[in-house]
Every structure is written in structure tokens, then in C-alpha cells.
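testing teh design pipeline on a random one, pls ignore if ur not involved
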């Protein structure tokens, strides 16, 4: 019985060492020079794609692995939002942004006036600037602090 079991085990192991014929799948084992083991009948490597030295040179890690965040040029940047806020305030004649900071979903903008304004005029101009900032940066709640000229 032990001999029979040993013979069956040996046959099972040898059966796994058979040759696999790739001719059915369209792949060759070797080309004429004995190279390119994974070359297809049409001469392309792998699944029909040519491999060049430049392939992958302009790809980022996020292109290669979908689990990585996209860190390409289309990424949201808070400094761009601050620059946009400064540009928007500067578009109103006689005002410039002093300090701009973002705290969560709120953008705080400190605005300097080139002349002394009354409190009523400050409120009116602050509302005007806040409306322009809200149109330019709608993702933020905008707080404007108006200060007289420096």
C-alpha cells in the first residue's frame, strides 16, 4: 500500500512538470534569436503594447497606482485662493488687502483704505468688497475687516 501511494504521489508530481504550449494563446516561447520570451506573434510585447524607453517617464505615481492621491497640477492650493482674494480687493480702487488667512471654510480679509472713511462708509465699502470676494471665491464664508488708510 505504501509503495502504491508513493508511485501515485510521484506521478502527480511529474504530471505538473509537463510542457505548456503557448501556440494556442498567440504567444511565442522565443523569437528567432532566442529572446523576448513574452513576445506575441505580431511582434509586440505583452498585450499588444510597444515598450519604449520613454514610457512612464512623464507619469506620476498617482497615474500608476489609483490608491495614491492626485498630486498633479490640478490640485487645489490655498495660496492660489489668497492670491485671488488679494487681486479681487485690488480691483476696487483705493483699497488693498493687508492680511488674508483661511480658517477652515472661512476666509478672513483685512482691507486697508487709501483714505480715512467714516464708519458708515467703511460698512458700505466692506459690503461691496465682501460681495466681490464671494463672487470670486464662493467656497468660503468671507469676513472683511476694513481699516483706515496707511
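output:
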Amino acid at each position: 500500500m505504501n509503495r502504491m501511494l508513493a508511485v501515485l504521489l510521484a506521478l502527480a508530481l511529474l504530471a505538473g512538470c509537463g510542457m505548456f504550449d503557448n501556440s494556442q494563446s498567440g504567444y511565442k516561447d522565443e523569437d528567432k534569436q532566442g529572446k523576448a520570451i513574452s513576445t506575441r506573434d505580431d511582434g509586440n510585447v505583452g498585450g499588444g503594447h510597444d515598450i519604449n524607453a520613454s514610457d512612464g517617464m512623464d507619469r506620476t505615481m498617482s497615474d500608476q497606482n489609483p490608491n495614491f492621491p492626485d498630486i498633479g497640477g490640478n490640485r487645489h492650493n490655498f495660496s492660489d485662493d489668497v492670491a485671488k482674494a488679494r487681486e479681487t480687493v485690488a480691483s476696487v480702487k483705493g483699497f488693498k488687502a493687508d492680511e488674508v488667512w483661511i480658517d477652515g471654510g472661512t476666509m478672513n480679509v483685512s482691507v486697508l483704505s487709501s483714505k480715512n472713511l467714516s464708519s458708515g462708509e467703511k460698512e458700505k465699502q466692506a459690503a461691496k468688497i465682501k460681495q466681490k470676494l464671494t463672487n470670486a471665491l464662493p467656497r468660503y464664508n468671507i469676513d472683511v475687516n476694513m481699516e483706515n488708510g496707511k
